[in-house]
Amino acid sequence: MQLRYRFRLYPDACQQASLARAFGCARVVFNDAVRAREDARKAEQPFPTAGELSKRLITEAKQTVKRSWLGEVSAVVLQQSLRDVETAYRNFFASLKGDRKGPKIGPPRFKSRKDARQSIRFTANARWSITGSGRLSMPKVGAVKVKWSRTLPTVPSSVTVIKDAADRYFASFVVDTDPAADARRMPETDHTIGIDLGLTHFAVLSDGRKIDSPRFLRRAEKKLKKTQRELSRKQKGSKNQAKARLKVARAHATVADARREFHHQLSTQLISENQGIAVEDLSVAGLARTRLAKSVHDAGWASFISMLEYKAQRYGRTVVKIGRFTPTSQTCSTCGVKDGPKPLSVREWTCGVCGTVHDRDINAAINVKAAAGLAVSACGAPVRPGAIPAQREETGSHGFPTQHRAA
């Protein structure tokens, strides 16, 4: 199983200039490749192959006056940029044919130097290394200081250097892990649990526990409003506007980091305590079009469920999703009688058949667990099949999804 371990980088002024040069060269090669393919499409000619693009846009371009500066960065960075174009087109055509799951995606677009996120990738043949003093040495960049929050479990196969909207630099390492060895690290347990996600409480568990919603965005709205107002008053294109934009980006990054850390800590706790976990397959995109859109985005349910899934796969646990139309809030968890829909203002209700008084959310969590049909054998192994693979970083690494992050 592949995971990404992400660490903060602190390049000096000279290294920042070298990285900016590498970001720019990779962006130019990417745009040239997209333009070449679009020109071929308009001319109704076959797409140029990866080898042809590499020769024309990198090898031959370096010999021209217009693109001679491509030789100032590592050739591996430029080759990886071409591979990103290939991947983008492959995903686009797979989406058109219906072979790719999820929403339809469009063709690759041109990148801008003003994009919030810039990145380059070094593979194993790029001669990058981690020095004895703990710095990340990259060709034509130098040895950059790294803030190590943990040790890497294995030798990384590649590293992606990322600059985000808040002008922070990160190194994202791809490492291979052994799920069997990871599963042995987790304590044995035969507990199973159902989770009802909500807004008043972020999660209500079938054992009666309620986890309050931190509401990171709501708590930071006053500061965000102030920084956004300051940005709107700056003259367009001025240095003061650039400074104000950076303040806004950093304020949003603080909120996103806090939410991600909360999701990591809670998902790790639930995975370590339970052999099986049941959740609802929520339509987050649909809920985000309602009047509760801001609160739904603030909760980040989709990100939390994805963390549960990949950690379950890594540590030998089970995550089961039940249908979003399952009437978990309408059914009595004691006698199984469906009592009918209820407005959100009703937080407690009494079953008209058995007379049981239900807490709405706890009752729903119990029904989620029952609908998932979770069962655990005497040896602690899950009877129901495991979760859908979702390979992501583990708690504390503040990372991105594995397969779509090395761009």
Number of extended strands: 14
Straight-line N-to-C gap: 20 Å
What is the overall shape?
A: elongated
Sheet of most strands: 7 strands, antiparallel
Element string (H = helix, E = strand): EHHHEEEEEEHEEEHHEHHHEEEHH
Tell me the strand percentage band.
Answer: 15-25%
Structural class: alpha+beta
Number of helices: 11
Radius of gyration: 25 Å
- Overall helicity: 40-55%
Q: How would you state the average pLDDT, rounded? A: 88
Give the strand order of the largest sheet, numbering strands 1, 2, ... along the chain. Answer: 2-6-7-1-5-4-3
Looking at the chains present, what oligomeric state does this protein adopt? single chain
Low-confidence stretches: 375-407
Tell me what you see in this structure.
The strands form three sheets. The protein has a seven-stranded antiparallel β-sheet with strand order 2-6-7-1-5-4-3. The chain has helices at 13-42, 50-59, 75-97, 179-185, 216-232, 239-273, 284-287, 293-299, 301-315, 360-372, 402-405, and strands spanning 2-10, 118-123, 129-130, 136-138, 142-147, 158-163, 169-176, 192-197, 201-205, 210-212, 276-280, 318-322, 348-350, 357-359. It has eleven helices and 14 strands. The protein has 407 residues and is an alpha+beta fold.
